[in-house]
Amino acid sequence: MDIRAVAFDVNGTLVRILADDGDERAFRAAAHFLTYQGIDLHRYELRELYFQLMKEQLRSSPEQYPEFDAVGIWRSIIDDQQTDFTRALPAGQRQQLPLFMAEMARGISRRRLGLYPYVREVLDVLRDRYPLAIITDAQSAYARAELHKVGLLGYFDPIIVSGDHGFRKPDRRLFQFALDGLTVPAENALYVGNDMYRDIYGAREAGLSTVMFDSDQGEKTYRDCAPDYTITDFRDLLEIPGLISG
Length: 246
Description:
single chain, 8 strands, alpha/beta, 15% strand, two-stranded antiparallel sheet, 6-stranded parallel β-sheet
């Protein structure tokens, strides 16, 4: 292989994360907070409304692989449920509310966030040799903040987040955005992911070489799809022929 750039998935590949979007604690806190914005909703009512709006977003999307917009959902809730008290709040406060709600809900529902073993050590080796990119299915509201939290934000350029575009992997356009940012053709790029459908199938369809990191997350099979390489220890990425010695 003539590899000139390496791109990565995030959650389940670089980052071990556990978050429950339906966590009752998050909606209880959100409902309590909204009380102080003049909006009175019970946590169960709020959760039902949130996921109803998510389904409507996805259903109305023209995309084959639609991505939802958490900030947009909270904006709709606030706009639909606002009272005279809400409308009297300072304009800047009202403008920031949807983003704040998305970040708060994510923070409360997140139970784990950390790197898989040896990720940083491997990235330190690779970034001295290649430009590195991210292609992740995630929300714009928190994808980069979570990379910052685990100390990886500065390793990658570009960072392609599905929430910025309204569609998710395996849509090949996300992979092409990364290739355009890296300024390398697909045949000279390697993609590392943990999900056989979204990552390996998607990258393969876009023309990239693929590495399956067989972690504790992600779908492990999809039809007859097979990666070029499979690893279970992140250090094994450096053993791929030509990646370091080539």
